[in-house]
Amino acid sequence: MTGQTPLGVTCIIPAYNEAARIGGVLAAVAGHPEIAEVIVVDDASHDATAEVAGAARGVRLIRLPQNRGKTCALAEGIEAAGEPLLLLLDADLLGLTTAAVSALLAPVRAGRAEVSISLRQNAPRLWQMIGLDYISGERVLPRAQLAGRTEVLRTLPRFGFEVHLNALWIESQARMAVVRWNDVQSPYKHAKMGLLPGLRADAAMMGDILRTISPLGALAQIRALRRLRLPA
Q: Distance between CA 219 and CA 110 in Å, rounded?
């Protein structure tokens, strides 16, 4: 992409009951000079998530009538996106800054990588050791990778999106940049919901992942993704 105008970016943020945290995420992306549009897909939240998102400058809000899970919310956002690059962010990130967003965008917009993925400061120790969080929700990719697959996405488990996208990246042998976010965290579910509800939510998420890919398949994905990783 050297010598060419960098591609435009649509930021998609699926959100469910994140009124307390989504404002910080939106502060980092709304008005960001490299982001042409920000889409928040509210997955039928019971709190004020939609109101917070709707009040943010330059944010397009899509409200789903019933809760269908992260994967379906992302499918709605992808269908609505108007730019050739997608920036996918979780709604609960803590410490997200404009600089961190720019760092995740930079390898793809500069043409050094085809896709990028974050490695957050509080990612599990194993992911830190191997230099890859294979289920990170923070990614940059061409919209064309998913534009014709939204109906397939809607058939996946509620939290099956990331491993499905991993398979596409591996199949296409996409050049992947891993971007370390040393000051960005994703809060643990028990901190957001309380101990027992958080444990149940974690178990449900892992169940969805295992319905999408087997443990051996996950190990194979991790090995394959590490081979796609570009030097830092």
A: 30
Does residue 177 contact residue 113 with C-beta atoms inside 8 Å? yes
CA distance readout (Å), 163 to 23, 72, 121, 176? 27, 14, 21, 15
pTM exceeds cut of 0.85: yes
Domains of the chain: 9-228 (3.90.550.10)
Beta-bridged to residue 10, according to DSSP, are 37, 86
Residue pLDDT, tens place only, 98-149: 999 999 999 999 999 999 999 999 999 999 999 999 999 999 999 999 989 9
50 conformational bin, left if phi > 0, alpha if psi -120 to 50, beta if neither:
alpha
Q: Is 15 helix (H, G, I), strand (E, B) or coil?
A: strand
Q: Are 28 and 100 in contact (CB under 8 A)?
A: yes
What tokens were used for 6?
């960098």
Each residue of 18-56: pLDDT tens digit? Answer: 999 999 999 999 999 999 999 999 999 999 999 999 999
- Mapping DSSP to helix (H, G, I), strand (E, B) and coil, where does residue 195 land? helix
Q: Where are the beta strands (DSSP E) in the chain?
A: 9-15, 37-42, 59-63, 85-88, 115-120, 139-142, 176-181
Phi first, then psi: what are they for 214, rounded to 5°?
-75, 165
Cα gap 80→30, rounded to integer Å: 17
| Parallel/antiparallel/unpaired status of strands 176-181 and 59-63 | unpaired
Nearest to 15 by CA among 33, 29, 31, 1: 29
